């Protein structure tokens, strides 16, 4: 059974890798015409990003490379482009050189790359930057903190110290309001066969860009970023449309293993949610998955739970901040679920009651009706044990969760016990023949062993190999089979039978050997 599952995973991954739609990447020619927009995506989720782009932007031509999606659009689409939820960063292609041959001499190649700056339409680039500027001025708390840290490090390197916080805050205000160009060049090199390195290319190309445009250089507090990509056989210059990655958009209170909002959205996309469905994240952590679901699929009920008190506090903080402060003790998100004051969300005890989910006085999942009506993105939050869920049988439509990898959280030894117990309990609360489960994990062996044990209750529909912070993880889409859940059924029964048969065969062979030796 396990071998069949592994073969299924490899076959599906090979099939999806062939579904690439080729398009011609357009260079920037004149302002207002069609241009090529690029988007970076978590490796493995390119096809879900294409699904969102084609639906929201009515795009026909697109191209997929590893970790990137290219499509054609105009400046009028910038507002819609910034509303995409499956992509991390956006950029506008200025010029792309295909079949580019790099010179073996470093000095010659640096001059060639630098001379490219005088061939590019920088006036058009500045016009597109001005059109895009209103959509990326507003920063959340996390992004402002990152910008302060960046400036602080730069001052420490250059001056041996750093300015006060008041000076940093005034710089942020200038950054948000100023329309003067302060730029930097960021280079990304693919492979190591080129004769130049990324820092060398950044330095040389940035100097030539300043000579060609007269823009100010600011490496820490910049508002225009020029991207230079040194590929294996290509060279690309692009304009960044997002100063910060979009995967930080909902989360301000981070945990040890916070899931990116973009990955959470892509996982929800795989499940093809329908209006009226109950979507549950039994191990929600900081609440990335239920928050993304509540923002995009408002017709569904989104419930998140965890067995950690610290995780519950972070969920309250993130839900509260995204709802304008409502839901976190009536504050603005600074007080993370303290116990002294009454919270809009009530954390239920870690108990299991087969009669249904622990309900408050108003019949809600831990949220007062009065406060719930005010929430822009309502998320139900309950504290529970994922192996003893407080749900009635056959009540959950979809489960989307990020399982413990066994790295920073838990261990692979614990996963061998946790995964099958969780899936067994999830089969009880899921609707027979209808429910879906989308699970992200790095511990593939424990996951596949669990699927093998519970093949009567769950069938593997799809496997997506993804890159999570450099780890080769996998997303498994499971479907609930029509096999009825039986209370007290031992899901390890078949495995135990195999072990007994194996031990019986082994003991028989040992006995035969002893008989031959007349012992």
What does this structure look like?
The structure is a single chain. With 519 residues, this protein is α/β, with parallel strands linked by helices. The chain folds into two domains: 2-244, VC0802-like (2-Layer Sandwich), CATH 3.30.2130; 261-488, Vaccinia Virus protein VP39 (Rossmann fold). Helix content is 37%, strand content 18%. It has an eight-stranded mixed sheet. The chain has a seven-stranded mixed sheet with strand order 11-10-9-12-13-15-14, with helices on both faces. β9, α10 (288-296) and β10 form a beta-alpha-beta unit. α4 (106-115) runs parallel beside α8, α9 (261-271) crosses α10 (288-296) and α13 packs across α14. The longest helix is centred in the C-terminal third of the chain and has 24 residues, at 493-516. The model is unreliable at 10-20, 159-165 and 327-367 (pLDDT under 50).
Please tally the β strands and state the result.
15
How many structural domains does the protein architecture include?
2
Helix-strand topology string? HEHEEHEHHHHEHEEEHEHEHHEEHEHEEH
CATH topology of the largest domain: VC0802-like
CATH C-level class of the largest domain: Alpha Beta
The biggest beta sheet, please? 8 strands, mixed
By secondary-structure content and strand pairing, the structural class works out as: alpha/beta
Number of helices: 15
- Radius of gyration computed on alpha carbons: 27 Å
